[in-house]
Amino acid sequence: MKKFGLTILLLAFFSGVSAQSEKIKIAKLQYSGGGDWYANKTALPNLAKFCNEQLGTTIDEENAVVTVGSPELFNYAFVYMTGHGNVVFSPSEAENLRKYLTSGGFLHIDDNYGLNDYIRLEMKKVFPELEFIELPHDHPIYHQKFNFPNGIPKIHEHDNKPAQGFGLIYEGKLVCYFSYESDLGNGWEDQRIHNDPEEVRLKALQMGANLITYIFTEL
Length: 219
Hints:
This is DUF4159 domain-containing protein. This protein is an alpha/beta fold. The chain has helices at 7-13, 43-55, 91-102, 116-126, 184-188, 191-194, 198-217; strands at residues 26-30, 65-67, 78-83, 107-111, 133-134, 164-170, 173-180. The chain is globular and about 40 Å long. The N and C termini lie close together (6 Å).
């Protein structure tokens, strides 16, 4: 994260001293194309609260939203993207997202069912030279505070497929994590929305906490 200019956020990550001044900011990504980017409305606030309680972080629990092409994108250390349908990045949006990710930002794409085919095409606009690769189960992202020896946990069933975690690696760094057939964000939501068992929600939140920890300790 050094090149990203987020020194204050790095200092704030494990320090309660700055809780009243500088907070780590995370946001949901708003995109064009007609897909429901606004899905999982309670997910990020719940993840932020969980991380603050379990990791001692100082993450802003506000449900922030940022558009792909906005300069405000660079204000967020972690950006979450979800949805069920179509995604379209304009050339300028793709360029802005690339600059964000190659400068130290991190994007988590969470397939809420139906996003896979669209997002793979659009991320080719961002990184035409890269391919998504499935991360091995011994990757550090699965072994932060919470241990997932079998990789990303399965939260919601869709097509009777195993949960998979894919990554885009730029100059040796994981800049984008794509959770597929898992639906982590649904597990982060308020329990009443999907009626998931608490043990399932806990696994989802723990994996989300690993993602947050990873970007500040491994990148």
